[in-house]
Design brief:
heterotrimer; A alpha+beta (about 625); B alpha+beta (about 140); C alpha+beta (about 100); A: about 625 residues; alpha+beta; B: about 140 residues; Alpha-Beta Plaits; two-stranded antiparallel sheet; two-stranded antiparallel ribbon
Chain lengths: ~625, ~140, ~100
């Protein structure tokens, strides 16, 4: 039996085929909690600045959250960290499923992989043993096939974290798939895994167990969290309709960035069928699914019965997959989107970057900067399902035009030239998730300062929409006035973003799902502290645990500054900042102007105690957060 | 509560394992997949999940199958009671259950059978959503 | 004179009310056209809806006739709270969205 206060790092050097264990000191656990937090600490220590993200010196860290393996509601999230081959900056990317819990049962909390193996390998971890096994036979296999064959080698259930062909071909946004259908999606962790020759990590839970220091207290805190989530309207929405449930809403209120962000809505009928609300009645929804210890169950398993896409069956799709592969490419046929989802899952691709890169190509083609011949005979016109699906396969294997798109829109636009950079809708070299930032300024600021690139998975400021009583109460607590629960104003966005950053970081570190703290708002700071303290026996107040979140954000900033990040990198896609989108209704100023962003950035840096020039933490800030070790950067 | 039983609706199960983890915690004091009296058979590729647990069925083939009469029905709770001293750890009951509802503890070499937590099954409580496991009270 | 219901003397405006979540389940439809006289406000459209579908009233309104905190009203995409609340003036062709929750993913 292991306890949450004792965290084990398994170090693996694939070049020398050596493995050793490290126990994380309790002082570090107190300050960084677990999961992403300890991952940050390891990355700061073990990543030398400027190394090739796809070379042997980029550490690839898998971190299971501190509460994984327990039944604390939604304690199923694991985080993967490294230097991103897409942005060149800090990368953390997370996923649920059951892999993280299995890893802890197998006796390991964190894995730090370095080096490169000459032949493909699998890292096999079970209670009491770790092994590097040959995986030559698996190289080239899709994700499902990989899992199936690994499972054949073992009598009892295993969980896997593996890459598909995209990771092997070092597509700069290849993902890592956990438990077959849960994507650690963004930033190219799969390419890093592929560059190391690591096809999969297997965790066999066996008879492993996890104990908590104060069982009764922990049980009570878990019960409380579960009861709160059962009451929450947002959580309820996620259970019934999944993350893609509100496509119709976004479309109706004209907040559905489509056709490479040129318009904000699509045909009503298309939105209806694309939205998760209609899937059950249409017979697509085969099952609702939940990650380990989940009490929300937002994940889906969908199937297409017959027709041209008959036989398509996969986990998901999530909202981002639907909107980036669908409307952003002009595609309104939900069955084609299901197929796109299945391909991304099985080939190991981040659906946001994939759909966005294809949308960029479609606009480039429309504007005459690329021909059908240059696109391998494919005609990449808006709405072409053939183009969407054909290009997805080519990207994963870097075939023909796929090789251009496999480096994402910024790099592709640099190769194609002309004005094509203007419609490469990206920042830090990464495509954003499909949130209409022009009318959601908390999101806009969060996207600009997100250390890994412009998306909602580091800081999700849903409360600013004021859509539920819980959300409005959060805004009241953060800003002192619930009237700030309006998303298209600049005021108080810094405060709203910073609070969400802190709690998101803590949520990641404990391995809970962000939907509990920054969407459904069913678990607050006090409950997080209670869960952590009763699990580990490490005393923790709600202030201390939020400080731990701040510490992570600050150390991540320090890692990025070490890689050369400047204030200019804290930006938004050119199109969002310069092309007014008049398709958005009810928005007076449909761009995020430089002036608007600068006002928010200044306020945000000031709140953090970072200088306005680079966004560098002042020495005093580092000392207050016990980050003296980062003083010399 | 007396005479209660569990009812499983596999179609509603999301494979989250909350029931398994909680069952192990309540009975063994630690969280694990192996220490529970319930398990969820999973095919992660086709997303088929089937909770397996004793449903206190009327015919109780496990009682009949036991060669040393170590199993009996507790008339008060309707659960299957094990006489630990008589049990030889032969596993015949495990194979006899048509529902796959009996687990086996390799360490103590004894079957693990649902005891309905003495009347308030913890698995039912953590499965309020999606309600794949429910507690049925025959007396209404 | 009631402001809702349309009138031959006053020029009428049409507001499209779109329903989601609980409200849509109760009403069993997702669109409702509210015909109101010029100068009507958001409260009139909500009352018109509740008049046509009494069952939806308890989901939208408190006993005092205020909109429940769990209900989010958007006018053409903007929360009415950030305009003038229930007093917000309606124009012909406006779209009023009645939501319980949105976001995520």
């Amino acid at each position: 039996m292991r306890c949450a206060n004792e965290q084990v790092v398994l170090h693996v050097d694939l070049s020398y085929r050596k493995m050793w264990h490290e126990i994380v000191p309790e002082m570090v656990v107190r300050r960084f909690l677990g999961g992403r937090g300890i991952g940050d600490w390891l990355l700061w220590r073990d990543l030398k600045p400027g190394v090739d993200p796809l070379g042997p010196d980029n550490p690839l860290i898998f971190s299971a959250g501190a509460l994984l393996g327990t039944a604390a509601p939604t304690a199923g999230r694991a985080t993967i960290l490294c230097r991103s081959p897409l942005t060149g900056f800090y990368l953390k990317t997370g996923a649920g499923g059951r892999f993280g819990a299995a890893l802890r049962f197998a006796g390991v909390d964190h894995i730090a992989v370095r080096g490169v193996s000459e032949a493909p390998v699998v890292l096999w971890i079970e209670p009491g043993s770790t092994e590097i096994r040959d995986a030559s036979e698996l190289w080239g296999a899709g994700v499902r096939e990989t899992h199936r064959r690994l499972q054949e080698d073992c009598e009892d259930s295993i969980e896997t974290a593996c890459i598909g062909p995209a990771g092997e071909h070092r597509v700069r946004y290849a993902n890592v798939m956990l438990s077959v259908y849960h994507s650690a999606s963004r930033g190219g962790a799969g390419a890093v895994m592929g560059s190391k020759g690591l096809k999969a990590v297997v965790a066999r839970p066996g008879r492993g167990s996890i104990g908590v220091m104060d069982p009764e207290g922990f049980h009570l805190a878990s019960d409380r969290a579960r009861a709160n989530l059962l009451e929450d309207p947002m959580a309820n929405n996620l259970y019934h309709y999944g993350t893609a449930g509100d496509v119709t809403v976004f479309n109706d209120i004209r907040r559905l960035p489509s056709k490479n962000w040129q318009v904000a809505h699509i045909e009503d009928e298309e939105a209806e069928s694309l939205g998760g609300r209609s899937w059950e009645e249409a017979g697509y929804l085969k099952r609702r699914r939940g990650c380990s210890a989940c009490s929300i169950h937002c994940h889906r398993f969908t199937e297409v019965g017959d027709g041209p896409y008959g036989g398509t069956a996969s986990g998901g799709p999530q909202l981002a997959t639907v909107t980036r592969g669908g409307p952003n490419c002009g595609v309104g046929n939900v069955e084609a989107v299901f197929r796109f989802n299945e391909l991304c899952n099985d080939l190991g691709l981040d659906a946001i970057s994939t759909g966005s890169s294809i949308a960029w190509l479609m606009e480039t083609y429309e504007r005459g900067l690329i021909s059908s011949e240059q696109a391998d005979g494919i005609e990449p016109v808006w709405g072409s399902e053939e183009a969407l699906l054909g290009l997805t396969g080519r990207i994963a294997h870097r075939q023909g035009i796929g090789d251009l798109l496999a480096d994402e829109t910024l790099a592709a636009s640099q190769r194609v030239g002309g004005d094509s950079w203007q419609w490469a809708v990206q920042a830090k070299g990464m495509s954003p998730s499909g949130v209409a930032m022009q009318s959601a300024l908390g999101y806009a600021l969060a996207f600009a300062v997100n250390p890994r690139g412009p998306d909602h998975l580091h800081t999700e400021t849903i409360a600013e929409f004021g859509a539920t009583p819980q959300a409005r109460e959060v805004i009241q607590r953060i800003t002192g006035d619930e009237r700030y629960a309006v998303s298209d104003i600049v005021d108080k966005r810094g405060e709203i973003v910073r609070w969400h950053e802190d709690i998101y970081a803590v949520t990641d570190a404990l391995g809970l799902c962000a939907f509990t703290t920054t969407c459904a708002y069913g678990i607050d700071e006090g409950l997080l502290a209670k869960l952590f303290a009763t699990a580990t026996g490490v005393p923790m107040s709600s202030e201390e645990i939020m400080t731990a979140g701040r510490r992570m954000m600050t150390l991540e900033r320090a890692i990025n500054l070490r890689e050369g990040l400047t204030r200019a990198d804290d930006t938004l896609p050119w199109r969002i900042m310069n092309e007014p989108n008049h398709d958005l209704t009810g928005v007076e100023d449909p761009i995020v102007s430089r002036a608007k962003l600068d006002r928010m950035l200044d306020a945000y840096y000031d709140l953090h105690g970072w200088d306005r020039e680079r966004g560098a933490p002042a020495p005093q800030t580092l000392r207050e957060l016990d980050l003296e070790f980062a003083l010399d950067g | 509560m007396s005479g209660g039983r569990l009812e499983v609706d596999a179609a509603r199960c999301t494979g989250c394992n909350s029931c398994v983890l909680t069952c192990a915690f309540v009975h063994e004091g630690t969280f694990s997949l192996s220490g529970a009296r319930i398990r969820v058979d999973a095919d992660p590729i086709s997303a088929e999940y089937t909770p397996r647990v004793c449903i206190q069925c009327a015919e109780a083939r496990c009682i009949v199958a036991c060669p040393v009469n170590a199993l009996s029905r507790d008339q008060g709770t309707n659960t299957i009671a094990l006489d630990e001293a008589a049990c030889t750890g032969c596993r015949i009951c495990v194979g006899a259950c048509p529902y796959g509802g009996i687990g086996f503890d390799e360490e103590s070499r004894r079957p693990r059978i649902c005891d309905l937590c003495g009347g308030a099954p913890a698995c039912v409580d953590v499965c309020r959503l999606p309600e794949a496991i429910r507690s049925i009270c025959p007396d209404g | 004179m009631r402001r809702s219901g349309g009138s031959s003397e006053n020029r009428a405006i049409r507001v499209e009310v779109r329903l989601y979540g609980e409200a849509a389940r109760v009403v069993r439809k997702e669109r409702f056209i509210s015909e109101l006289s010029e100068g009507s406000i958001v409260r009139d459209a909500v009352e018109d809806l509740c008049g046509a579908y009494p069952a939806v009233a308890e989901h939208l309104l408190t006993e005092n006739g205020d909109v429940r905190p769990a209900v989010n009203l958007l006018l053409n995409g903007r929360p009415v709270r950030s305009i003038a609340g229930l007093e917000t003036r309606l124009e012909d062709g406006d779209r009023l969205f009645v939501l319980h929750a949105y976001g995520g993913g």
